[in-house]
Design brief:
With about 200 residues, the chain is an alpha+beta fold. The chain has one domain. It is built from 3 helices and 8 strands, in the order ββαβαβββαββ. Strands 1, 2, 3, 4, 5 and 6 form a 6-stranded mixed sheet that branches. It has a two-stranded antiparallel ribbon with strand order 7-8. The C terminus is likely disordered.
Length: about 200
């Protein structure tokens, strides 16, 4: 038998390499303008680790190796950012994203208006990954997720964030349904349409 092409670089099943905690250099694959489930303006940012990062191309490889018929860009490499806060002003997370892109790409200045999202494709940005406890499919899971964006020059000195917990995990620990939300007075609301997924184009 001849040695299959790309044999040495093919990952065996069960050999999972997790995302390293701390700072990473990212490349933006796509930014999409969209609406939240409640009708608020938001953007979806899809990214991968940049060529200069220690885990370059990590999420693209994960996507390529996904054998499911309806595979999607990994959730771990996607961020949803509301553009406005509850008062209708610019949200801090949106301003942080824009500022970090501008500081990470010399000479880049955000252009507002039509085709807003296209200008971000291929731009660099930094990201800080930290541990997070989640509860999914009846199991407690420790994940490694993007906690916040930073400028590329801040990546090397980024500290690993403390453990965070998802709402599903907190609900599990406290004995509530995983998708419940607090309603005050100790009661919980379970929203409709919690399984809705947003596709990556």
């Amino acid at each position: 038998m001849r040695k299959p092409r790309n044999y040495d670089d093919t990952q065996a099943q069960g050999e999972f390499i997790p995302v390293e905690l701390g700072g990473h250099k990212l490349i933006i694959k796509e930014v999409c303008e969209m609406k939240s489930k409640t009708g608020k303006d938001m953007i979806r940012v899809s990214f991968d680790f940049a060529k200069a990062d220690k885990q370059a191309g990590y999420f693209e490889k994960m996507f390529r190796d996904d054998i499911r018929p309806e595979k999607k860009w990994p959730n771990q490499a996607t961020q949803y950012i509301l553009t406005e806060d509850s008062e209708g002003n610019c949200s801090r997370s949106f301003k942080t994203f824009i500022t970090c892109v501008e500081h990470s790409n010399k000479g880049f200045e955000t252009q507002w208006g039509d085709n807003f999202e296209a200008q971000f494709k291929g731009k660099l940005i930094g990201g800080v990954f930290g541990p997070q406890m989640d509860y999914y499919n009846g199991r407690e899971i420790e994940k490694r997720v993007l906690r916040w964006f930073v400028s590329v020059d801040k990546v090397a000195d980024a500290q690993i964030p403390d453990m965070s917990e998802t709402t599903a995990y907190k609900n599990h620990i406290n004995g509530y349904h995983p998708e419940s939300t607090p309603a005050g007075d100790g009661f919980m609301n379970i929203p409709d349409g919690i399984d809705e997924e947003l596709p990556f184009n």
